[in-house]
């Protein structure tokens, strides 16, 4: 029984399963999968924790949540009023004029979260230097409060022009709006940075999902009152419940962020500093570029076409998962996804009422998944149901896999070759319940030299929650020249970042690092550059620009646009653990499976029976409770010292 003082559990709420990884010093790590409960995700979390530690108590429960993400995607948000400067009523509708596809004549922009009739404007104007051009009067504040009251909002977003330069008007307005008794998001507190549309969009997203996230976290704390609960943020770090409840926009990429943190640690443990994280779950596939063992972080992301500028790992997501439904379009072509069978009813082979063919059904029909074996969550597969579901398609099960792999290959190229990064220098870290079934085929198509499958790939995102440090990033737009003395601002941001982590309960071993968004004069977008050592800021931009674009412009003036200080605490785990409980090895006979258009006889190898130094030659299926790894004919996998399954392809 793990000691109740030391036990910690990382919990990842996915579209199909809720995964739990239990860690306690002196005990083997334990993984548990239970079906996600879409109507009340907290119920699935509670059930997973109870199964992982039925008679004990937890000290800490970091968890990844899709609550904020789903609220935006499904538009199940609070009725939100948006207050902005007079003349900027349509800032959310006008947005940016760039087109996502230049020659697509049918492209349509997503509708703003807040309709025009819920926008209230105030007569005020702050200048870019922080000096008021039109003062905000008490009478105007009273008029604005009355106008917002008549809208009967459930939340309020306030984003005034140039409030990042001086927040006096926003502060006074929000103080007055406080009498309405609903949550208020102030843009200058949430995102004190320039670009009014992106700041307004981020502010509105936060306000619209704050009541939703607050209800979810309150429910979770009621169900699990004992452990300290933290929430994974999009940036690859954790935050306290109070922060996540009031700034939920930071959690929009909560679930996949944990996975890429763990993928970076796994890649390093296998000897690869650079890699691509490849997470194929039940409803989607997430990919992310990893450099020097860490996922890249950006401050320019979007969800459902809506931009937000909080720090986020550079994840690209496509609607291709184990539950993705295969269908035929009007032209007779086979398509897979983005619609998914989800957790309820799930793929046809789950035997829970699903009738439509999915990727998991294709694997079941091809023999990749053993119907006699109990999968995560206590599931047993119905191969006959899978065959019936697939029978209505014009293509075989192998065709379904070919189509979904084409979608995933495009996603992998998006974060590698399309960014000028050669995949021949990147390992593919495969995880998620379905990732290892597709990994070697995708790695060969991209030209990756190796595939790394961690010891517990089906719960790697849950493990990532134990590997992720507490993290907060303080920022401020400065729009200065590279030679200006910014030491006072750096110190202010450092104090702010440290205070926020301390407020969240991180009292010791806080590490601070500096980042600056920089550009050459005349450019309209910046590069995020780590500020380290004694190297001048201009030289840092020259180096970063050369690495990103292949050239530098030393004769151009360098501008420092935004300063950032990142504060990090210590994670629960410093490195991926070993000695996983894979169950008892069970000898199984070889079986015939389909790979492409071929039928081959594959070895069935229990991962529980593998040890460092062991090798497996394909065709083979390496089975474990949370996933299955597929090796094609002639592919050789070996178990390294960290218990990773490594397939060298070159």
TrEMBL record:
Top-level taxonomic group: Bacteria
Domain Acetophenone carboxylase-like C-terminal: 474-641
Pfam families: Hydant_A_C, Hydant_A_N, Hydantoinase_A
InterPro entries per the UniProt record, alphabetical: ACX-like_C (IPR049517), ATPase_NBD (IPR043129), Hydant_A_N (IPR008040), Hydantoinase_A (IPR002821), Oxoprolinase-like (IPR045079)
Residues annotated as domain Hydantoinase A/oxoprolinase: 199-472
Domain Hydantoinase/oxoprolinase N-terminal span(s) in chain numbering: 10-176
Coiled coil location: none
Protein name, as recorded: Hydantoinase/oxoprolinase family protein
Organism placement in taxonomy: Bacteria, Bacillati, Actinomycetota, Actinomycetes, Pseudonocardiales
């Amino acid at each position: 029984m793990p000691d109740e003082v030391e036990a910690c559990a990382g919990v990842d709420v996915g579209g199909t399963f809720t995964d739990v990884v239990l860690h306690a010093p002196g005990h083997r790590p334990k993984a548990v999968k239970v079906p996600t409960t879409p109507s009340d995700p907290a119920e699935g979390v509670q059930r997973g924790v109870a199964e992982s530690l039925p008679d004990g108590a937890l000290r800490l429960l970091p968890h990844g949540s899709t609550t904020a993400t789903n609220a935006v995607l499904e538009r199940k948000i609070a009725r939100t009023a948006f207050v902005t400067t007079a003349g900027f009523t349509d800032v959310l509708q006008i947005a940016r004029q760039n087109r996502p596809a230049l020659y697509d004549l049918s492209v349509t922009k997503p509708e703003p979260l807040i309709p025009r009739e819920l926008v209230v404007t105030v007569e005020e104007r702050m200048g870019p230097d922080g000096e008021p051009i039109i003062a905000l009067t008490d009478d105007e504040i009273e008029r604005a409060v009355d106008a917002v009251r008549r809208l009967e909002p459930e939340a309020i977003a306030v984003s005034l022009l140039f409030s990042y330069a001086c927040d006096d008007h926003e502060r006074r307005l929000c103080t007055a709006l406080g009498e309405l008794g609903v949550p208020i998001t102030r843009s200058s507190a949430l995102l004190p940075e320039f670009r009014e549309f992106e700041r307004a969009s981020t502010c509105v997203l936060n306000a619209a999902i704050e009541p939703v996230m607050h209800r979810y976290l309150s429910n979770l704390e009621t169900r699990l009152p004992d452990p300290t609960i933290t929430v994974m943020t999009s940036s690859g770090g954790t935050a306290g419940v109070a922060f996540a409840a009031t700034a939920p926009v930071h959690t929009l990429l909560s679930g996949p962020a944990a996975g890429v943190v763990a993928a970076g640690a796994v890649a390093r443990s296998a000897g690869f500093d650079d890699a691509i994280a490849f997470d194929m779950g039940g409803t989607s596939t997430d990919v992310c570029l990893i450099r020097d063992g860490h996922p890249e972080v950006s401050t320019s992301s979007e969800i459902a076409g809506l931009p937000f500028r909080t720090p986020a790992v550079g994840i690209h997501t496509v609607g291709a998962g184990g539950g993705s439904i295969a269908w035929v379009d009007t032209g007779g072509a086979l398509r897979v996804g983005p619609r998914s069978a989800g957790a309820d009813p799930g793929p046809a082979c789950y035997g829970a009422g699903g009738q439509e063919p999915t990727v998991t059904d294709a694997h079941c029909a091809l023999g990749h998944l053993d119907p006699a074996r109990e999968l995560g969550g206590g599931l047993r597969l119905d191969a006959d149901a899978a065959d019936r579901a697939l029978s209505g398609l014009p293509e075989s099960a192998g065709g379904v896999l070919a189509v979904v792999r084409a979608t995933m290959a495009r996603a992998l190229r998006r974060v590698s070759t399309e960014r000028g990064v050669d995949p021949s220098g990147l390992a593919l870290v495969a995880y998620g319940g379905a990732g290892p079934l597709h990994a070697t085929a995708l790695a060969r198509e991209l030209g990756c030299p190796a595939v790394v499958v961690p010891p517990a790939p089906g719960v790697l995102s849950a493990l990532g929650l134990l590997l992720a440090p507490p993290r907060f990033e303080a920022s401020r737009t400065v729009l200065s020249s590279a030679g200006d003395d910014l030491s006072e601002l750096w110190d202010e941001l450092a104090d702010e970042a440290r205070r926020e982590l301390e407020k969240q309960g991180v009292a010791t071993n806080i590490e601070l690092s500096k980042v600056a968004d920089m550009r050459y004069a005349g450019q309209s977008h910046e590069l995020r550059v780590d500020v380290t050592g004694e190297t001048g800021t201009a030289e840092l931009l020259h180096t970063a620009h050369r690495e990103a674009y292949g050239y530098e412009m030393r004769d151009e003036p360098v501008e420092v646009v935004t300063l950032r200080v990142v504060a990090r605490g210590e994670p629960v785990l410093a490195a991926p653990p070993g000695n996983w409980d894979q169950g008892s090895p069970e000898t199984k006979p070889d079986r015939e499976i389909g790979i492409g258009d071929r039928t081959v006889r594959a070895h069935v190898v229990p991962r529980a029976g593998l040890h460092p130094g062991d090798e497996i030659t394909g065709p083979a299926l390496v089975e474990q409770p949370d996933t299955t790894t597929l090796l094609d004919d002639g592919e050789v996998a070996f178990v390294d010292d960290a218990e990773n399954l490594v397939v060298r392809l070159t």
